[in-house]
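Pasting as-is:
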Amino acid sequence: MSYFTIAGVQMHALHHGDNTEAMRQRINILMTRFPQVQMVMFSELVANGASTEHAQPFPSPMESMFCELALLHRIWLIPGSMFERDGDRIYNTLSVINPQGEVVCRYRKMFPFRPYEQGVEGGSEFGVFDVPAVGRFGVSICYDMWFPETTRTLASMGAEVILHPTMTDTVDRDIELSIARTNAAINQCYFFDFNGTGAMGNGRSIVVGPSGDVIHQCGVGEEIVPVEVDFNRVRRERERGLHGLGQPLKSFRDRSVEFSLYSSENGSSPFLDALGPLAKPVRHEV
């Protein structure tokens, strides 16, 4: 199978509180209107808000509810992310649920939005999964995409579609749209970047094709966006090049240079070490 239909949901949600019933309603409406949809994804932390006070150990009752929904509609479901409590640590974790209602992958956000996302640990394992007879998907969360190594690693692991829930309510959303297009082009993959709206984001979710082309960009209100992706297009462009031109994945594979920055244990350098602590800016008195 070459074609596969993914629906992203950009919805209004409470910043602190349980939004799962609203998510259930969106899925029910979506599957009634667009029964061809095979996968549904939501934005970051949409399920129970952006407070670590709501963190739960996984598997959790909330995750189980989403498993029941996936089974009911026979869809792949990525219900955004939720705060996960693991002992005395908290992670921003995304669950991937298959049409049988089984969790096939849990991914912990690698780059919490520090210094603003306090009290959240970063994960260390990449998240990829296969849809049988279709293709390979990769997952990342919000600030992860600002680090090109994350998406490049997913592509190098064979990911053909990147699913990227985010929660951005700040003035840098316009830059993120450029990053989404860039990540898609330099890794020759589809990139689904879905944001919340209202208290959980300023919208403008974006779906990008493997040439960096904008397939759809949302406004600032609620939207349900079903998009049919063509895996043969990804494979063709990776073989032939973007517009028959650049083949960045092959060029990266065949490079003659090793990057010294990555040879150190912590990926640091004298210049980076001189930048000072990772802290919020302070107000200067005049």
